[in-house]
Amino acid sequence: MMSNLRNNKDFFAGLMFILIGAGAVFIARDYPIGSATRMGPGYFPVALGGLLFLFGVYIMVQGVIKKEKMQGTWSMKAWIILPIATIIFGYLMDHGGFVPALVALVFASAAAGDEFKFREVVLMTVVLTVASVGLFIYALELPYPLFPWSR
Amino acid sequence: MEIFHNLIYGFSVALSLQNLWFCFIGVFLGTLIGVLPGIGPLATIAMLLPVTFNVPPVAAMIMLAGIYYGAQYGGSTTSILVNLPGEISSVITCIDGYQMARQGRAGPALAIAAIGSFIAGSIATVLIAVFGPPLAEMALKFGAPEYFSLMLMGLVTAAVLAQGDMVKSLAMVVLGLLLGVVGTDVNSGMSRFAFDIPELTDGISFVVLAVGMFAVAEIVSNLGETEERQVFTAKVTHLWPTFDDMKRSIGPILRGTALGSFMGVLPGTGPAIASFSSYMVEKKLAKDPSRFGKGAIEGVAGPESANNADAQCKFLAMLTLGIPSSAVMALMLGALTIQGIAPGPQVMTQNPDLFWGLIASMWIGNLMLVVLNLPLVGLWVSLLKVPYRIMFPAIMAFCCIGIYSVNNSALDVYMASFFGVVGFLWRKLECPPAPLLLGFVLGPMMEENLRRALLISRGDATVFFTRPISLGFMIATALILVIMIAPAVRKRREQFTD
Questions:
Q1: Is the ipTM of this structure higher than 0.90?
Q2: Inter-chain residue contact A12 with B458, CB threshold 8 Å
Q3: What is the mean pLDDT of residues B333-357?
Q4: Which candidate in A151, B252, B306, B342 could, as Cys together with B278 as Cys, close a disulfide (CB 3.0–4.6 Å)?
């Protein structure tokens, strides 16, 4: 049974909608519902969560019937590395500076690709950093410290 | 004539040095991303929003609009020359455009695409000028029930016409509406789905959502595909179409413009649908349909005019009703809000410089596109030789800086990362992200209008069906749903999306 559901795109899409819908209703149960005349903050989210749940059930059933598989590759490497690169950037913007954040981002992003040519990446990092500093810090005057010691 | 008076005023705004400059930057960037596959107008506009913060509203909107219609234009260049559509809307142009290029007629194909776009753009400009004021006047009479029904219609059409499974699209709309709920409820002051995170009480920023879903997820998905770019660069020798070409094209251009303008006003229809239907119409009308697919100039002229007209008429609903009819328009609406302008029918009276200036700038932008791009075709094509491994880190850098600078918040960057992860998952599960973004932007407005409508009617839901305009929207919504569920259409639609 389980092996039939592997990579079944509609089954998992449905499952996701069911979980989110149920979760939304669960969290929103504490918000006052009110009445149709005077809706409380809970009315709209509970209605939407319920609707999402129903859509989810329908999509899931369709998935079990149609058994359509997911297409294409998963590009796992990029899927993991790019979000991490983004998080590092955010962290370094708050705790480091514009330059280290950008260098880390470009370097880490480049590592997500299929080809990583070290010299090319270094050159690209330098060019991008200089260009961004010029555009964002000097031309657009965004108020970010360039380095940790200039904070 | 008031229209002329308004248009002249618009041109006086658009022709200021600053606005011309931003118009130029917009169409330039638009063409650039239109040429490059793998980055679309949505991600670009989301990315560049922060750049517009310090710019006056008119100039900012002129630039963002330029990016949008410039991209439709750039997409056609690569479709014709290298059989590689830069944007979805120019997929159809590949068919006959590329064949023309192979036959050594790349020049006329490019020229007719440009001329068609320009004519379509000019007519669309006039249409917006003519229909804008009455539409805004009508919208001023809209009450909460009308707005709710109109938004419902927009969301349903968007979901139904999106590519792929209709039910999934509808589910994505609902998910978007739910995400729009996150934050402080304006009526009760209660924070919803904020999980005690202070930043979340302001709600999720739509820039975060858009960049995560359309830039980060897009890059992840592109990196998974082994890229093969065979660049058969056709030599562009003579540019000008022959008299016969012109004679063949004028009909398709005008019909394409009409179709595109019509589709543009309808909520939820993307430019791809406009160009596709134009191609179908031309093929049906042709005396010898077998020429299509073998380099028929009508197959370039029609669709290219249609997608440009569509792109411009999208602004009509956005500016006069304050309702986005596509994901890109949702971003435009967000940009307006960031600039401190409340979207809605009052924009025309309270910010006439913005309304008329933007419209006039579209005509100027179209002119710039024709004048600039035909001579620069070689430059654009050579850009395709830039490998993706160089492009995507740069896109990432711009996206991240862009997101961070909206609120100077690292949390926004983390959230974009999160939406990048789930955005890619949604792609794999074939859940379209565009309806979600639309739902997200309309969510708060819809809830507000639903509450107000039911408050006025004392909880009586029939209020949506007893007021004539609201009833009209409701009937249209029901019709769209019924038509789409009807088996015959469903079958054809599946063929269409394949």
A1: yes
A2: no
A3: 86
A4: B306
Buried b (16+ CB within 10 A) or exposed e, B149-176: bbbbbbbbbbbbbbbebbbbbbbbbbbb
Q: Which residues of A touch B221 (CB under 8 A)?
A: 75
The reply to whether A140 and A81 lie within a common domain is yes
Residue B232: pLDDT over 60:
no
pTM of the model: 0.84
User: Percentage of residues in chain B with pLDDT exceeding 70?
Assistant: 92
Distance CA B263, CA B86 (A): 21
- Residue of B372, B359, B355, B303 lying closest to B123 (CA atoms): B359
User: Given A14, A32, A66, which residue is the final one in a domain?
Assistant: A66
Residues A84 and A60 placed together within one structural domain of the fold: no
Q: How far is CA A63 from the centre of its chain?
A: 25
Instruction: Specify which residues A8 forms β-bridges with.
Output: A69
Would you say residue A71 lies in a domain?
Answer: no
B178 pLDDT higher than 90: yes
- What contacts A67, CB < 8 A, 6 or more positions away? A4, A8
pLDDT band at residue B237 using 50, 70 and 90 as cut-offs: low
Specify the pairing of strand B183-184 against strand B191-192: antiparallel
Q: Of the candidates B348, B43, B406, which has an alpha carbon nearest to the alpha carbon of residue B212? A: B43
User: With contacts defined as CB-CB under 8 Å, which chain B residues touch A9?
Assistant: 428-430
Question: Per the CB < 8 Å rule, is B424 touching A79?
Answer: yes
Task: Give the sign of the dihedral formed by CA B326, CA B318, CA B207, CA B380.
Answer: positive
Residue A89 in contact with partner chain B when CB distance is under 8 A: yes
Q: Which residue on chain B is closest to A84 by alpha carbon?
A: B417
Of the candidates A37, A45, A72, the beta carbon closest to that of B458 is on A37
Q: For residue A140, which residues of chain B lie inside 8 Å, CB to CB?
A: 51, 54
Q: What pLDDT, on a 0 to 100 scale, did the predictor assign at position B62?
A: 92
Residue B287 pLDDT: 82
pLDDT of residue B493: 57
Q: Percent of chain B at pLDDT above 90?
A: 15
The helix (H) or strand (E) run that includes residue B192 is strand B191-192
pLDDT exceeds 80 at position B415: yes
Chain B hits for A78, Cβ within 8 Å: 219-220, 223-224
Burial (CB count within 10 angstroms: exposed 0-12, middle 13-18, buried 19+), residue B138: middle
The model's confidence at residue B498, banded by pLDDT at 50, 70 and 90, is very low
Residue A95 belongs to domain spanning: 76-150
Q: pLDDT at residue B348 above 60? A: yes
Number of domains comprising chain A: 2
Q: How far apart are CA B216 and CA B211, in angstroms?
A: 6
